[in-house]
Design goal:
By secondary structure, the protein is an alpha/beta fold. The protein is built from 16 helices and 13 strands.
């Protein structure tokens, strides 16, 4: 049977920085350019491949509107879909158009259903409505982890034949500055990534620092992430009386970081701390491991699928478990053994973005 034309929806590439869902969309677009049956669309229009190439080079959606506005003769996606023999739409997130022959959607998580206390009521209503609609219309629900697939099966109850699992990939950028001198001049630091919101459970780190201030003499604690909702970074600093540590730059907060700086931080950190209560996959975990950086993460939802046997874990609902584990790791200078490094390298060979994209496009070809 002739391969269908796959139309990749690129709306996540509007974001200023490509992390999370936009990162997945970026990698699908990058590898989609290598496929002769993949095309791209945004809103109601086909997007030329040269615009996709520009977005990949920039790794930011800042230029998307400007580039698209220069193309005054964009082809309506409906016209193009009607021209091809068989069309399959691939949505990296929420479905936006429903007139293709087949539809495939990537499901990252169902946290708005499984743990609604971590979301604003408006978000719950919006996503709760769209996911029910999308799961019914979609011919393939491509889940980023077995944990997410379990949630999809349990809460949405689609035909099991629709549910596919393809774990996310990882790759250190070829153009990174990992071996050069640049922004990061910290000698020893613990890296904590994630939006400042209850689901990310960042507060555990603040409590640990407040109760174990001696570690501030040896390590700087670097928090990367914007404020979300219900709590803020500054509120937590005040709650745990850590203003002096901020003033002395033993606690550093970076709201927005470039892709290069992200990889630099991941590579140079003594430890990545990832205390999240719920994740669809936990991409920072496998990204840190790909740099050879040890990881202490919560044993929650899909996170152990990302870290497998290569990360240390703790119970995210038990502060004593967290404190004991982190203290032990720091007392051991975050050391791992040579066997860990060799086994990790072998594992990462099977976890590339290319393999991820190939599996996703293969599912689209088959539906």
């Amino acid at each position: 049977m002739t391969k269908p034309t796959i139309f990749l929806e690129i709306s996540p590439l509007q974001e200023l920085a490509y992390t999370g869902i936009p990162k997945v969309a970026l990698e699908l677009a990058r590898h989609g350019l290598k496929k002769d049956n993949v095309e791209f669309f945004w809103d109601d229009y086909l997007i030329p491949r040269e615009i996709i190439e520009e977005l990949i080079r920039a790794e930011s959606g800042l230029i998307l509107h400007a580039l698209a506005n220069e193309k005054i003769n964009l082809t309506p996606i409906l016209c193009r879909a009607n021209e091809v023999e068989r069309s399959v739409a691939l949505f990296p997130n929420v479905m936006t158009r429903f007139f293709f022959d087949r539809h495939a959607q990537i499901i990252h998580d169902l946290v708005f259903i499984t743990a609604p206390e971590y979301h604003h009521p408006d978000t719950i209503r919006h996503h709760g409505t769209t996911i029910l609609r999308d799961s019914e219309i979609s011919d393939a629900l491509i889940c980023v982890s077995k944990s997410t697939a379990y949630d999809v099966k349990t809460y949405l109850q689609p035909p099991e034949s629709k549910i596919k699992v393809v774990e996310l990939g990882v790759q250190i950028p070829a153009k990174s500055k990992l071996n050069t001198q640049h922004e990061t001049n910290l000698e020893k630091f613990i890296l904590i990534v994630g939006t400042i919101e209850p689901r990310k459970n960042i507060e555990l780190a603040f409590k640990f620092i407040a109760q174990n201030p001696e570690w501030l003499e040896e390590y700087t604690f670097v928090f990367c992430g914007k404020d979300g909702w219900l709590i803020s970074f500054n509120d937590l600093i005040k709650k745990y009386s850590l203003e002096q540590a901020v003033e002395n730059e033993r606690i550093i907060r970076l709201k927005y970081i470039s892709e290069e700086l992200k990889w630099d931080l991941l590579t140079k950190a003594s430890l990545l701390l990832f205390p999240s209560l719920y994740e669809g996959f936990g991409l920072p975990v496998i990204e840190a491991l790909s740099c050879g950086t040890p990881v202490l993460a919560s044993c929650s939802s899909s996170i152990m699928e990302a870290g497998k046997e290569f990360a240390w874990y703790f119970d995210p609902n038990n502060y004593n478990s967290f404190e004991e584990k982190l203290s032990t790791i720091l007392n051991n200078n975050c050391k791992t053994n040579p066997e860990w490094s060799e086994m990790l390298k072998l594992h990462l060979l099977q976890s590339s973005w290319e393999k991820y994209a190939d599996q996703v496009f293969s599912i689209c070809n088959d539906i």
